[in-house]
Amino acid sequence: MNTCERSNRLNAYHDGELSPPEAVELERHVRGCPACAAELDGLRRLTHALASEAEPELPASALRRFHRAVDRVARNGIVRFAETFAALAATIMLVCVLNLAHGSPARQATMPVWEAAAVSESAGESGSPSAEDLVASWISQDLSRENGHD
Fold first, then answer.
1. Tally of domains within the chain
2. Model confidence pTM above 0.70
3. Helices 113-123 and 131-143 meet at what angle, rounded to 10?
4. Closest alpha carbon to 5 in 28, 26, 31, 21
5. Does residue 17 contact residue 8 with C-beta atoms inside 8 Å?
6. Same-domain check for residues 41 and 64
7. Residue 28 carries which DSSP code?
8. CA distance 64 to 41
9. What is the dihedral of CA 139, 143, 146, 150, to 10 degrees?
10. Same structural domain for residues 44 and 33?
11. Please, what's the largest Cα pairwise distance for the chain?
12. Each residue of 89-120: b (16+ CB within 10 Å) or e?
């Protein structure tokens, strides 16, 4: 094991990841440090040995099994969570829309004018004031002297 403090930069030097000034400085250090020179030589020999080996061929059946396993893992992870979350959100939205569309007249009488306008417009109720009438009423109520306006 190399105990030199600069040995941690040998892998980056070997892989060509150092800037030119850093590489020159480390080359100078390696010429004077036997431990770093030996470690760099070991890295070079290992790279040469790995490069000279042929890549093993993976049989088609093993490759298909590998792809199926990756697909299962992905499906069980974040994708499954996202599908569950989307279904829950769609259910909540559907319940809210149905509640607004089929709200009772008593509830509409107690709700603010702007909300009643939105519900009556979306529900398409006939015989009730139009959305424009309700909005105009809401604006006039909001701007009246009773609400502190001049």
1. 3
2. no
3. 180
4. 26
5. no
6. no
7. H
8. 40
9. -170
10. yes
11. 97
12. eeeeeeeeeeeeeebeeeebeeeebebbbbbb
* Rounded Cα distance, 141 and 79, in Å: 50
| Statement to judge: residues 12 and 48 lie in one domain | yes
Give the integer Cα–Cα distance in Å for 64 and 68: 6
- Distance separating the N- and C-terminal Cα atoms of the chain: 86
* Helix residue ranges per DSSP H, the chain: 10-14, 20-32, 34-52, 60-74, 80-101, 105-110, 113-123, 131-143
Domain that holds residue 89: 58-101
Q: Per-residue confidence of the chain (150 residues) as pLDDT tens digits?
A: 677 888 888 899 999 999 999 999 999 999 999 999 999 999 999 999 888 888 778 888 988 998 888 877 766 777 778 888 999 999 999 888 887 776 655 555 566 666 666 655 555 455 566 667 777 777 777 766 665 555
Query: Rg of the Cα trace of the chain?
Result: 37
